[in-house]
C-alpha cells in the first residue's frame, strides 16, 4: 500500500470514528482551512454544503434543505461564526464575516459583515 493510500485510509477511519463517537457528520471537502468546532456534538454538514475558511461552528447546528428533493447547495463565506442550535436551510448564500446567533433559523441569503438572529433570522447589526 502506497503512502498516499495509507494516509487516506488513516484519515478516513479517523473521520468515521469522530462521526460515530460525537454524533456528527462532515462531508468530504465541505469545509475550508481553519474550520473549528468548539465542542463536538450533533453537527451535520453534508457534501453539498460549502463552508469557507476560518469558520467556527458550535454544537447542535444543522445545515439542511428546505425541500428534500431539490439540488440545494449552501454556501457559507469566510470568517463566519455559527452559534449553538442554529438551523440553516438552503438554497442559501451567507456572506463573509457573518455571525449567526444561537437558535437562529436562516432561510434567506445573508450579506457580508452582519449579525443575524431570530426565527426567521433577520439582520440585527452591521459590522464595521
UniProtKB/TrEMBL annotation:
This is Serine acetyltransferase. The keyword Cytoplasm does not apply. It comes from the Bacteria. One of its GO terms (cellular component) is cytoplasm. InterPro entries: Hexapep (IPR001451), Hexapep_transf_CS (IPR018357), Ser_O-AcTrfase (IPR005881), Trans_hexapeptide_repeat (IPR050179), Trimer_LpxA-like_sf (IPR011004). Keywords: Acyltransferase, Repeat, Transferase. GO terms for biological process: cysteine biosynthetic process from serine. It comes from Segatella copri. Belongs to the transferase hexapeptide repeat family. One of its GO terms (molecular function) is serine O-acetyltransferase activity. PROSITE patterns: HEXAPEP_TRANSFERASES (PS00101).
Amino acid at each position: 500500500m502506497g503512502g498516499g493510500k495509507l494516509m487516506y485510509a488513516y484519515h478516513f477511519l479517523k473521520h468515521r470514528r469522530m462521526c460515530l463517537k460525537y454524533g456528527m457528520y462532515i462531508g468530504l471537502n465541505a469545509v475550508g482551512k481553519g474550520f473549528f468546532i468548539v465542542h463536538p456534538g450533533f453537527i451535520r454538514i453534508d457534501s453539498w454544503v460549502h463552508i469557507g475558511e476560518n469558520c467556527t461552528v458550535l454544537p447542535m447546528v444543522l445545515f439542511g434543505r428546505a425541500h428534500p428533493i431539490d439540488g440545494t447547495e449552501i454556501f457559507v463565506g469566510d470568517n463566519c461564526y455559527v452559534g449553538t442550535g442554529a438551523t440553516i436551510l438552503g438554497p442559501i448564500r451567507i456572506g463573509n464575516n457573518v455571525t449567526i446567533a444561537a437558535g437562529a433559523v436562516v432561510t434567506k441569503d445573508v450579506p457580508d459583515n452582519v449579525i443575524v438572529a431570530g426565527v426567521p433570522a433577520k439582520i440585527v447589526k452591521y459590522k464595521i
